Structure formats: structure tokens, C-alpha cells
Amino acid sequence: MQFRYAAMIIASAAAAGCAARQADFSKLPQQNIAGHMTVRSNGVWFKPCATSSDREWWVTFTEGSVAQFDAARSDGRAADGQRSFARLRAVITDERVVGPGGPALLVREIHELNASRPEDCAEEPAIALADLKEAGID
């Protein structure tokens, strides 16, 4: 009986923590961002066009982007190990919000997702440094 009670308390606390974190997502500023996305066994990773860093960002799909990404997986635009060019509407976050550590994207909408080409990032606008610093990303 004590074990069952303890398990219920832990489950309730975890659910409350998740709900609180999810509620904060709607308050975060969204922006359009372009870069290359790769599906790997440990998740989906994103390298923005407009940064000089080689660091990849963890990707989490939310809202309508979940169905959009599922469709891209079905039609081969987001195959395992394939690098794809993406234009997204997303929230830039840091490891305190979501992901395994480091920068992360909460994708709200996929505007474009196609096979990558060498010229993909040639005309993409820079990400405002203030946006990255505000999210705790250097």
C-alpha cells in the first residue's frame, strides 16, 4: 500500500512538472529560422544557417509541425541520416527548457523541408545575436 501511494505521488509530481514546463512554451518568442536538419537514432538535430558554430541544436516538434514532420518522414524528405534543408517557425531555447543539453528548437511550423544543396544558406538572414544571448546560447 505504501509503495502504491508513493508511486502515485511521484507520477503526480512528474505530470505537474511537465504541465508547468509546457505552459511556458507558449510565452517564448517565435521566429523564422533556416538551416540543415538531420534525423539520427538519438533524435532530430538542426544546424542553423546563420551561425558560425558547428554545434547542432536538438529539435522538438510541437503543434502542427508534428503532423508536418510525420508527412516528411513518410514521403522521404526526412529520412534517417539524410541532411535536409529546412525553413521553420520555432522558438530557440537552451538546455534549461527542453532537450538533452545545449541549444534546442521548439518547432511550431515547417515552412519548407527538402534535400540539402550547397547553396541552401547563401541568402539566409543572420540570427540576431541578442536572440541567442537571451536564450542563453553563445
Describe, in short, the structure shown:
By secondary structure, the chain is of the alpha+beta class. It is about 30% helix and about 30% strand. The longest helix is centred in the N-terminal third of the chain and has 24 residues, at about 1-25.
Task: Write up what this structure looks like.
- This protein is an alpha+beta fold.
- It is 29% helix and 32% strand.
- It contains three helices and five strands, in the order H-E-E-E-H-E-E-H.
- It has a five-stranded mixed barrel with strand order 1-2-3-5-4.
Task: Please write out the topology.
Blueprint: H1 2-25, E1 31-40, E2 43-48, E3 57-61, H2 65-74, E4 83-93, E5 104-115, H3 129-134
Summing up helix and strand content along with how strands pair, one would put the structural category as: alpha+beta
| Shape, per Cα inertia axes | globular
What's the average pLDDT? Answer: 76
Helix coverage percent: 25-40%
Report strand order across the widest sheet: 1-2-3-5-4
**Number of DSSP strand runs:** 5
Main sheet attributes: strand count, strand direction, barrel closure: 5 strands, mixed, barrel
String of helices and strands = HEEEHEEH
Beta-strand proportion:
25-35%
Instruction: Using the CA coordinates, give the radius of gyration.
Output: 17 Å
Given the structure, what is the number of helices? 3
Alpha-carbon distance between the termini? 50 Å
Uncertain parts? 3-23
